[in-house]
């Protein structure tokens, strides 16, 4: 997707998709429009929420465009403002999952019921997958910014669920779209328990899905938030939430696009005389004469019970107790190893 030292790619066809997994019936996932301060970047709607057993509402808007110094070209826009949306989007019929259909609605709460309509899941314990092709199927971002933007709304606090978007190339079979379908870009928030609240930014490069090395925190409240990814031709990127930059940097530093400059020599072997012991036994140290003591001794305070019958009970022996003089196994003290060469790598 970028022109850089990491490699140059252009797309001859693109598909934007929406996937949702496992939604309780009384909660919904909504995909819809959002008004923001840069309408020339507003170009499409799309989200891939991944939901487990916890209730969740997700409402998202995708903006995908290429931006030059003075102009921005929109390659995909979907506001879900008219009932013809179903003619533009293809519901997956993948046989491996129990699929359900989306419905067209503004969700549980909204600013404008007509303008805020989007796609919403409605049936519990079902999978959802839908996609739409871009109208312009040939472009490259060589020399231009690539901008992907969408909004996500979780109408209640969620325990585990995702709201991220995927962009595919023309090889996608839209009627068989599923979670393992190869994609080009994945971007968006993912929440699972207290330990995972992150924004995924994943690029497919040479057949591998490369995750960012940065931990980008996402929002986890019930409000609508705008997520924007900007990839620049100088190999830099920015991730913004609600217009605020939450992460930025260089592609080649924050993703493993390039092979490492140095690798371990596969032919190298540790020399036989390489000593990697930092400490050794002190050979001059000797065990004290009084070291050897039994671990247990007879309790000196114990007395034979008055009702003890030697003929019936056998010979009486006092119980054993821990020996306070016991010191355990003796080992010589440790000293610095004068031949130590450090760890061998």
Automatic annotation (TrEMBL):
One GO biological process term: protein folding
Keywords of the record? Calcium, Chaperone, Disulfide bond, Endoplasmic reticulum, Lectin, Metal-binding, Repeat, Signal, Zinc
Compartment(s) where it occurs, according to its Swiss-Prot or TrEMBL record: Endoplasmic reticulum lumen
- Entry's InterPro entries? Calret/calnex (IPR001580), Calret/calnex_CS (IPR018124), Calreticulin/calnexin_P_dom_sf (IPR009033), ConA-like_dom_sf (IPR013320)
Q: Where is this region: Disordered?
A: 266-345
UniProt key word Chaperone: yes
Give the GO cellular component terms, alphabetically. Answer: endoplasmic reticulum lumen; endoplasmic reticulum membrane
Residue pairs linked by disulfide bridges in the UniProt entry: 160-192
Q: Where is the composition biased (Basic and acidic residues)?
A: 266-290
State if Secreted is listed as a keyword: no
Any GO molecular function: calcium ion binding
Q: Where is the composition biased (Acidic residues)?
A: 307-316
What does this protein do, in the record's words?
Molecular calcium-binding chaperone promoting folding, oligomeric assembly and quality control in the ER via the calreticulin/calnexin cycle. This lectin may interact transiently with almost all of the monoglucosylated glycoproteins that are synthesized in the ER.
The similarity comment for this entry is:
Belongs to the calreticulin family.
Q: What is this protein called?
A: Calreticulin
* Species: Oppiella nova
Task: Give the taxonomic lineage as stored in the record.
Answer: Eukaryota, Metazoa, Ecdysozoa, Arthropoda, Chelicerata
């Amino acid at each position: 997707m970028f022109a850089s030292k990491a490699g140059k790619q252009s797309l001859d066809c693109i598909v934007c998709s929406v996937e949702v997994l496992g939604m309780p019936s009384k909660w919904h996932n909504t995909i819809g429009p959002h008004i923001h301060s840069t309408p020339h970047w507003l170009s499409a709607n799309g989200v891939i929420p991944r939901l487990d057993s916890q209730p969740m509402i997700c409402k998202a808007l995708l903006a995908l465009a290429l931006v030059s110094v003075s102009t921005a070209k929109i390659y995909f826009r979907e506001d879900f403002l008219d009932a013809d949306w179903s003619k533009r989007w293809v519901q997956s019929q993948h046989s491996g999952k129990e699929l359900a259909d989306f419905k067209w609605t503004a969700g549980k709460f909204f600013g404008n019921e007509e303008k805020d309509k989007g796609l919403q899941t409605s049936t519990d314990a079902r999978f959802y997958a839908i996609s739409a092709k871009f109208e312009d199927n040939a472009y490259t971002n060589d020399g231009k910014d690539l901008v992907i933007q969408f909004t996500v709304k979780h109408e209640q606090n969620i325990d585990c669920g995702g709201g991220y978007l995927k962009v595919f190339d023309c090889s996608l079979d839209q009627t068989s779209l599923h979670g393992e379908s190869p994609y080009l870009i994945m971007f968006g928030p993912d929440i699972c328990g207290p330990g995972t609240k992150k924004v995924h930014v994943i690029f497919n490069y040479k057949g591998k899905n490369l995750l960012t090395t940065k931990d980008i925190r996402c929002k986890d409240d019930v409000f609508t938030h705008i997520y924007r990814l900007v990839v620049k031709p100088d190999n830099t990127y920015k991730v913004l939430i609600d217009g605020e930059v939450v992460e930025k940097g260089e592609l080649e530093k924050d993703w493993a696009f390039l092979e490492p400059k140095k690798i371990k020599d596969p032919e190298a072997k540790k020399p036989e005389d390489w000593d990697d012991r930092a400490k050794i036994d002190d050979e001059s140290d000797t065990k004290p004469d009084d070291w050897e003591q039994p671990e247990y001794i007879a309790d000196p305070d114990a007395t034979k019970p008055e009702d003890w019958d030697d003929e019936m009970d056998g010979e009486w022996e006092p119980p054993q107790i821990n020996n306070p003089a016991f010191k355990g196994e003796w080992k010589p003290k440790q000293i610095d190893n004068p031949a130590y060469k450090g760890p061998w790598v």
